[in-house]
């Protein structure tokens, strides 16, 4: 095989290997969840929209949609020690442009205000396909009241 054909073959192989390794919806939400569990803010941030609003609802009902505040809050949380995040996927849905994942999360902190803290909550994430990738556009946490039907 001559050099020109070999160069073309290498270029085409590189192009298709890049396409094959692109992260689809399932890959993106798994990357997002794995980044939370491992407290890897860089990987987490790569799954979040770059521009625009990002609605965020905390388990206590507090709402804001500022993506800068979202990143700041989550970066500070990732830097804290003593917490664990154990999610269970309940349901996913995907269209050509949007994907949702509903998780049940068991969250624990060793020490919050001098005592252990536990929270069971539903986490509902919405991802949107844009610019060839999938990005988080909505993050909602809903506390599960003890004794609630599930």
UniProtKB/TrEMBL annotation:
Domain SnoaL-like: 28-139
Keyword check for Cytoplasm: no
Sorted UniProt keywords: Signal
Lineage summary: Bacteria, Pseudomonadati, Pseudomonadota, Gammaproteobacteria, Oceanospirillales
Highest taxon of the lineage: Bacteria
UniProt-listed InterPro entries: NTF2-like_dom_sf, SnoaL-like
Signal peptide stretch: 1-22
Organism: Aliikangiella coralliicola
UniProt-listed SUPFAM superfamilies: NTF2-like
Protein name: SnoaL-like domain-containing protein
Pfam family membership, one: SnoaL_3
């Amino acid at each position: 095989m001559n050099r020109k054909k070999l160069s073309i073959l290498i270029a085409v192989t590189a192009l298709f290997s890049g396409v094959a390794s692109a992260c689809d919806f399932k890959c993106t939400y798994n990357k997002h969840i794995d980044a939370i569990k491992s407290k890897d803010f860089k990987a987490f941030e790569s799954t979040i929209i770059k521009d625009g609003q990002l609605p965020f609802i905390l388990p206590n009902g507090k709402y804001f949609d500022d993506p800068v505040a979202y990143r700041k809050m989550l970066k500070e949380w990732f830097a804290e020690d003593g917490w664990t995040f154990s999610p269970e996927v309940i349901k996913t849905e995907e269209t050509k442009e949007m994907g949702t994942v509903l998780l049940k999360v068991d969250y624990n902190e060793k020490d919050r205000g001098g005592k252990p803290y536990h929270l069971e909550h539903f986490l509902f994430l919405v991802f949107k396909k844009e610019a060839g990738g999938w990005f988080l556009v909505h993050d909602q946490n809903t506390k599960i009241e003890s004794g609630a039907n599930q």
